[in-house]
Amino acid sequence: MGDTETLRARCVVTGGGPAGMMLGFLLARAGVQVVVLEKHTDFNRDFRGDTIHPSTLELMQELGLLDEFLQQPHQEVRELRGVINGHTVPIADFSRLPTRCKFIAFMPQWDFLNFLSNHAKRFPSFQLHMQTEVTDLLIENRRVVGVRAKTPRGELEARADLVIGADGRHSTVRDRAGFEVRDFGVPIDVLWMRISKREDDPEQTLGFFQHGKLLVLLDRSDYWQCGVVIPKGDFEQIKGRGLPAFREEIVSIVAFLRERVAELDDWSKIKLLTVQINRLRDWCRDGLLCIGDAANAMSPAGGVGINLAIQDAVATANLLAEKLRRGVVTVGDLGEVQRRREWPTRLIQRMQVFIHRRITGRPSPGKSSLPFVVRLLRDFPALRQIPARFIGIGPRPEHVQSPTSN
Fold first, then answer.
1. To which CATH superfamily is domain 5-76+106-184+276-357 assigned?
2. What pairing do the DSSP bridges indicate for beta strands 207-210 and 79-84?
3. Strand, coil or helix: 169
4. Phi/psi of residue 117, each to 5°?
């Protein structure tokens, strides 16, 4: 066996997703020596969401990065629409939000993460280690003092005054810490696939709802990233019915894809995304704090999980950056982050559970008319500001208050 490589930092962040990369950037900006460990070779993965919400764009403005950020290829969606039982209905209108950008930017998440990491690398106190998979925690006298990871070069020990677990819903860090996970049953999963895009296709919508079934299309310029909601655990049964039946199911929801579903000619092109909604009872212990999906996994509904993860990162930097610059943070300091962020997490998760109880992926009998709430949104435009604020800003938006290095 080769020698174990070691490194030392004030803070080690596990996971280079939205929460981890935003936190790494903000801590480095504050002059905190921070190392971000990301297990993949790059950020290019299909299961990552594409929505950059108005509140996140507001943060980019506060950081002085908005103009440069908006030069990246993206689509701007000022109104979310749904096709419900054949009727196109406006759901959320962002035009009156109290933000500089009154739209959701659809941008591949790998572009967003590359943008953040490139700016973070301009700070001498920032390091990003790709292909570095965290495998365990380093614990001394019941305090977390770092992590153990594997790299192409061998083993790595990264020691730090604080470890931030931002390694997603399958977090190794939270498992090794022994944190209790409270799971809220979700009756759905999502089948994820690519279907080619044509110039005459409709503009981006929130989704296509057809009597209990739901299909979402995300515009990725030259193709649609397609998500089909199915009942949890039904993937094998769907495969048993065969690809032609599945392709016909897609066409029954979104007719304009009829001539393209033949592209789905093998089950290997269709990936299962297991939907979870859960959160930790305690987000921290001595030397360790979990944020983002590692602390509170969201479903894809509304794309709000990305927004929430970024808000967690901003709150963490606001509350801990200056303390990290001065010395070791206490469990009480870490608990402030949970107290700050747990209420919006609970509220959003309750809303998602409510939505999922009504969208199961199974055919449901009923008239083709619109549900009452949807009719209200159609007939009273002012009401569209309510879902716009919930989706676009969230219940407790954070603003950058962490210091900058001198």
1. FAD/NAD(P)-binding domain (3.50.50.60)
2. parallel
3. coil
4. -65, -35
